[in-house]
Amino acid sequence: METQKQSLVVTNPVELSLKKDLISGFLVFLIALPLCLGISLASGYPAIAGIFTAIVGGLVTPWLSNSQLTIKGPAAGLIVIALGCVLDFGFTGGSNMIADFQAYRMALAVGVVAGIIQIIFALLRSGILGEFFPLSAVHGMLAAIGIIIIAKQLPVALGVSATGSPLHLLLEIPHHLQNLNPEIALIGAVSLLVLFGLPMIKSTWLKKIPAPMVVVLIAIPMGLYFDLSHEHTYTFAAHKYHVGEAFLVNVPANLFNAIAFPDFSALMLPKAWKWIMMFALIGSLESLLSARAVDLIDPWKRKTNLDRDLLAVGLANTLVACIGGLPMISEIVRSRANIDNGATSRFANLFHGLFLMLFVLLVPSWIHRIPLAALAAMLVYTGYRLAHPREFAHILQIGKEQLAIYITTIIMTLATDLLIGIGAGIGLKIIFHFYHGASLKTLFRPRLRMEKQDHQSTIVRVTDIMVFSNWIPVKSQLEKLASENQKTIVIDFSTAHFIDHSVMARLDELRAELELKNVVLRVEGLEEHQSFSAHPLSARKTKANR
């Protein structure tokens, strides 16, 4: 009898799930710790700000969002906005500590209001707006963010000081390589070697160790060997170089001493509202896209209520900005690691936040020993993944027009800012749609005709065009039919002369989602259409119009 009881306890599914979530939460904490520090410093915030964000994201959002496997925290995708905000408020990069702290507090006020706007978005059920943006422009925006991160963090990994626009910093890379600080650059180079090399190793047990933690475990001893905690100079190849504590992460000994409060006088400045909208719009878009992406790889295929998730993120952003934290989103890299580590529920996110809080409360001095070059290397690697060369080839496979939109978004973002960049991508997409026969009326209002076949099947006939800008009402109609116990929904394009790539891709996603509800979504009427490329989700146009 005793043996039977023990067996029942061991196989209890709730206990087993909590054990898996605890293990995954710990492993994600190992990844999150260095990334949170690096993202904070790259954003012009104090290093501890990212830790605050991950802690609040872990402790608050699991109780509000039904997203089971996403990890909430600071993301590389928001570095460009956060840094631009503090720079606009007078951030000097360490030259004037008083001015830097004031710029940081003003950015916190921006974060509070942006979080409130995200709450309003959620209450207005705006989660579906993540479906509006054309995919090529979104991917172009993320690639541009990756390039900007590389441009700004590579000098830190090399131990040189650099300022300027992303394009200027890219042009200065040869100069940075010529003037690198050898000891600091060695730490950065070894860190990059680990990040790029570890995934190539086929050892199963070694792959279980998070690469960012391996970097930290190697970089800290290197920093100790080079005695970075003491100011001194050294000679290499007949040149003198300076090293010291400035090359290490700076964190307070007491977590509560690091709490900072917003300076709401910033809201009197017109430029503050530009950054509020960028935080609210881009942050919401990135978070919604990440949550949807995680749903697609959830082993149990659970679906996130995007409005609830945005409400959780907005409330957590409002709270964390009140105590000195960075904005947060549903972060895709840590969420993917969460799934790979066997997480089963929202408690993994909770545990990852608890582990971070315990670490900075008990051993904050360990953080101070991490070299900045190692954190910069992690961000360079993250930027490379966002702007991977393979993405250019993938977009080209979908079609030349998509590549033009992708590259336009990248170039305009690098030359101006995120809003103008993604606006340029959307604008070019609309120009292409006009070229393919769209009108102002059809661009935003789809022409649909419903034909009930029987009480469980419906044909939705599309006329004129279906493009990214009129997709949302189409999706709402298809989901409404599915909720009315329709078992088969046919979307017929035989009378439509143009369907764009974003619609084809989202129809494919919706088909997979409805399949889980035992609803069949079938696409018909494409026989007379010609694809823009061999890709199965490329844009299509009737052969006569081509």
Description:
Helix content is 60%, strand content 10%. Strands 5, 6, 7, 8, 9 and 10 form a 6-stranded mixed sheet that branches. A two-stranded antiparallel sheet has the order 1-4. The protein has 546 residues and is an alpha+beta fold. It is globular, with a radius of gyration of 25 Å.
Question: Could you name the ranges where pLDDT drops below 50 across 5 or more consecutive residues?
Answer: 1-11
What share of residues are in beta strands? 5-15%
Number of strands: 10
Mean pLDDT: 91
Estimate the global geometry from the Cα principal axes.
Answer: globular
CA-based gyration radius: 25 Å
User: Would you tell me the structural class of the helices and strands?
Assistant: alpha+beta
How far do the termini sit from each other? 76 Å
In helices, the fraction of residues equals 55-70%
Largest sheet: 6 strands, mixed
Q: In DSSP terms, counting alpha (H) and pi (I) runs of 4 or more, how many helices?
A: 23
Strand-helix topology:
Elements: H1 2-10, H2 13-42, H3 47-60, E1 71-73, H4 79-88, H5 97-123, H6 135-158, H7 166-171, H8 173-178, H9 182-197, H10 204-207, H11 211-225, E2 232-236, E3 239-243, H12 270-297, H13 306-321, E4 329-331, H14 332-340, H15 347-362, H16 364-368, H17 372-386, H18 389-398, H19 400-415, H20 418-435, H21 440-444, E5 447-454, E6 457-466, H22 471-483, E7 488-499, H23 501-515, E8 520-524, E9 529-531, E10 540-542
Parallel strand pairs: 6-7, 7-8
Antiparallel strand pairs: 1-4, 2-3, 5-6, 7-10, 9-10
